[in-house]
Amino acid sequence: MKITEHYNLHKPDQDDFYDVDVLNENMDKIDTVLKETQTAVSNPAEQAPVFTPAETRSSLVSGEKLGTLMGKIAKWLADLKDSAFATIANNCTTTEEGNVLDARQGQVLQGEVDEINSNIDTKLPSNVKFIVEGSGSNVKYYAQLGADTTSKKSLGGKIRKASLGRNLCARGSSDSYRATMTFNAKSIPGYQKLTVDNFSSYVTCDVNAESSASIRAAVTNITYDANAGTLTVQYKASAFYGQGNAVTVSYWQVYVSCDVFYIS
Fold this sequence. Notes:
Layout: E1 2-3, E2 10-11, H1 20-42, H2 66-80, E3 87-89, E4 99-101, H3 104-123, E5 128-133, E6 140-145, E7 153-154, E8 160-172, E9 176-184, E10 200-209, E11 214-225, E12 230-240, E13 252-262
Parallel strand pairs: 3-4
Antiparallel strand pairs: 1-2, 5-6, 6-7, 8-13, 9-12, 10-13, 11-12
């Protein structure tokens, strides 16, 4: 008696006696396979395809066998690892584990970096020199005023900024005006450990003046009382016409804003 290749059905020889048990066994096997086939066709969710992950990533192609498709998908999931199941966050505030940043946030972050760089370039005095020493995990950052090595200070990785207010510093009818501004620096952490070398100050002016006269202002001196936490800024304002000639006007005023950049 022979046996079929795929389902091991019994095939009686010509000289074999008829055996009803053999026939029944064959019928049971055929019935089982037919039922499994019917279930798979009518309910694909119950299929149990056998597959091997593909060796390389490639696109799915219409008409491919289910095992081939599953092998391709398995390769993609294996290579992508956890990122295949991550949620995309199009913001910079999400803190939940398993999220990845949307590429559109790259432009947002670059804009903020550009703004910070622009503020550093325009707000800090032009003679501030940045120094980088070491590399990798041993890199250190310093700043100093021009070639004055005694002013070299460690940045501790950050430049900190504190806004100390906005004062009305001049209001009058002369061609020049000198004033002293006093700002409270106690809001700066560790203010008692700072010295005047930790501060860099700049002045901006909002001007009201008659006709075509302009106002020019500049800081002339800065002192710092660490015990009192008081920053004193002396400045001079001048009224002039287009060619820089001093002129007396009947009314003008200057508001001076003072921000300080410090290293702590």
